[in-house]
Amino acid sequence: MPFVTNNNDGPASDDSSNAGPRPSPGKSGFSPPAAATDLVEARRALLAQQDGPKRLDAAGLRQVLVDLHDFWLTTKGAEIGIRPNSGFAIVAVGGLGRQELLPYSDLDLILLHDDMKPAEVSEVADALWYPLWDAHIALDHSVRTVPQALQVASSDMTAALAMLDARHIAGDEELTNLLIGGIRRQWRTDIRHRFGELVDTARDRWKRSGDIAHRAEPDLKNGRGGLRDVQMLDNLAIAQLTDGMGSLRPDSPGGGLRTAYTRLLDIRTELHRIAGRPRESLRAQDADEIGAALRIGDRFDLARTISDCARTVSYSVDLGLRTSANALPRRGLSKLRRAPLRRPLDEGVVEHAGEVVLARSAIPSKDPGLILRVASAAARTGLPIGAATLSRLADHAPELREPWPPEALSDLLVLLGTGSHMVDPIEALDRTGLWGRLLPEWGAVRDLPPRDAVHIWTVDRHLVETTAYASTMTTRVSRPDLLVLGALLHDLGKGRGADHSIVGAELAAQIGNRIGLWPQDVALLSEMVRYHLLLPSTATRRDLDDPETAQSVVDALGGSRVLLELLAALAEADSLATGPGVWGEWKASLVGELVRRCLRLMDGEPLPQPEPLSDKEIRLAENGGVTVEIDTTEGPHTFEVTMIAPDGPGMLSKMAGVLALNGLRLRSANARSHAGSVVNTFVVVPTFGDPPEPGLIRQQLLQAIDGRLDIGARLDARERDMPTPPQVGDRQVAVPALFAQAPPRVLWIEPDIDAEREDAPVTLELRAGDRLGLLARVAAVIEGAGASVEWAKVTTLGGTVVDTFGVDLPADSAQMRASLEEAILAVVPPPAPAEDSDEPEGGAGGSPGAGVPIG
């Protein structure tokens, strides 16, 4: 059933039985206007009641204006012979057609006639239009037969959309019904050919008018997230392609589409009343008065309301356009197209028809981590989350227990590490109330307008943008997980009436404990938020040549090099996400110099060391042979795989490759040797379902050792079979298997002088985006260069890997290291190419200015 609004933005119902003459608006205190000049005077008197008990609210004002104009048109129509069965009808479109007439809106009218004589048509039209013109009432009019109107609508998109709002006012109601029924049948029939034009028209409008949610003076009617967007959804509903409501419920942020639309319409009504003219862009000087009239608050409260409503509308439009595109009627051979396949993306999550949806076996009520798995899968693949999936999660997904299981934290980190691709999934979760369920503290900053004009985003969007920028810097730091978490939380203390850094530090500690960070990491995250302004404020306000300047920073940070590098990256991401020109070469050079001076005052970090073997691992290694064991862990979808085999070339690569071929994603790994055997322990997460039997993995490992299983070729084939990202224009949205957000880095950590062992291995650390079978590929490259991996410690933090190898080089030299580094970088995901974006300058996707070197 089409979504048809009543006193909202949408076309009138197909049922025209209630569309006859309206009663006199005597309840408003005005006498029925006898002439067009009386109509003008009645409007003027109505709008003059700005204060007092007789002042109508926005909705009441619109209704009385509709009553006044309906009554005048009905009376005038009867006077000039426009009566039932007369062959003439007065039809309203636009605001009057939708019964949403604003104080200074134009009258949009059609005089329909049943192929009457030209002289008679001219006489009736002059008698109707001239009084309105003489009274200086803004009028958009046309005179047509029903076939003429349908012909115009078939070729003119603007006219077609206007007539979809048609409502009978006076005269021959049968004529009006013929027009309304005909225009809607024609629209449904032609929508397959006209859908692209409708979308292009909307995008052109958005480009001209901008995004309401993030604009200083938003165009409430034409901007993205505005009133015309809801009209477009209603037009698609008439075509029976979407209902426009999707997964939004009344208890969602913004109250759902209907509530958001009504609020924007009320704000636009008050804008007309206060401005005294037909204005669509809300100016800052009118905001306080409009907020007071609607009892919203001051201009900041009004801006927050507008942002909330516009984001609700924007989300609904994205959903409606996607649903409509999938529902377009098929013709010819396209009807024979096979139903789309369901491809596994994660446990309980699949891709179907270009959307991320729940698997048939998924039970949201028993799987609290499903929300984050769905969101991270959407961000990794660039696919939107299905509306039905969001509804099921909102209705049935339980709260995550505290502290969160490691799997949920990992999925959150994957989501936050996907750069600009995280924006849409987070927005979808936020509009449906799921993001606030994960982070209840988010409500205080949702749609919170900035107090500083240099900020171009609301506070919550600024946090997401900062995280997107931070995800491009994860390979600069040793703790990429804390970097993206700190970016997401750094301004969470705003809007609470106190120093946001101090309040935010307390909130960060609270959240860190909830999501399952280790205590030392909770303290580090809290310190990040507490001191996120320290480096830029010190670098730009104090003398860097003064030794006390760097010393004060070192003292404040407790001498932590890890915290310093995190704050340096966060300072750059925060500035880039603030607005254009906030981060540049001058600021970058000052912060970089401050960081270098602080590093000289700090002690070095301890060198990485291999993990010791457990008693069980020692016993299995001494038994010899090939052993594979799989044990459960605390997480329901995480397993520990122990693999032991006689030492030999390429064992780490072969073991990691076999796991990857079985769809086991690597969370962490420890590779060591003992008694002539390699002892490797992997913590893995199956892509879907349970891991295979240990015997099957052992059999494949034996085939790999014997050379009967080409792991590299099999990995390449599996990667080619991964879901294809959606197309947007002439480019693809995201290719997580091939591109990373941050550029990869290879670091060489020199060993200390060891008197007991002069041939100690050099330490190689790889920081890069994750990829299917990455550990297998990197280990194969190292071992193929003639080097041997004595030990390895592998960690996947979200979408970034930090892999440390103790490597024995055959001939350690600068040339050897450079050659090995080049070979490693050839198999890791390169940074994603720059994308063209419609975002304002400084939005996520570019990184102007110099970065702060760390490490």
UniProtKB/TrEMBL annotation:
Cross-referenced NCBIfam families: PRK03381.1, UTase_glnD
Domain comment (free text): Has four distinct domains: an N-terminal nucleotidyltransferase (NT) domain responsible for UTase activity, a central HD domain that encodes UR activity, and two C-terminal ACT domains that seem to have a role in glutamine sensing.
Highest classification ranks of the organism: Bacteria, Bacillati, Actinomycetota, Actinomycetes, Mycobacteriales
Regulation of catalytic or functional activity: Uridylyltransferase (UTase) activity is inhibited by glutamine, while glutamine activates uridylyl-removing (UR) activity.
Cofactors demanded by this protein: Mg(2+)
EC numbers for this chain: 2.7.7.59, 3.1.4.-
Keyword Metal-binding included in the entry's annotation: no
Comp. bias intervals (Gly residues): 842-855
UniProt feature, compositional bias: Polar residues: 1-19
Family, per entry: Belongs to the GlnD family.
Annotated spans, Disordered: 1-34, 828-855
ACT domain ranges (all copies): 640-718, 763-835
Listed GO MF terms: [protein-PII] uridylyltransferase activity; phosphoric diester hydrolase activity
Hydrolase as UniProt keyword: yes
Catalytic activity of the protein: [protein-PII]-L-tyrosine + UTP = [protein-PII]-uridylyl-L-tyrosine + diphosphate; [protein-PII]-uridylyl-L-tyrosine + H2O = [protein-PII]-L-tyrosine + UMP + H(+)
CDD domains assigned to the protein according to its UniProt record, in alphabetical order: HDc (cd00077)
Gene name of the encoded protein: glnD
Uridylyltransferase: annotated span: 1-344
Protein's recorded name: Bifunctional uridylyltransferase/uridylyl-removing enzyme
GO process annotations (BP): regulation of nitrogen utilization
Keywords (A to Z) from UniProt: Hydrolase, Magnesium, Multifunctional enzyme, Nucleotidyltransferase, Repeat, Transferase
Pfam families from the UniProt entry: GlnD_UR_UTase, HD
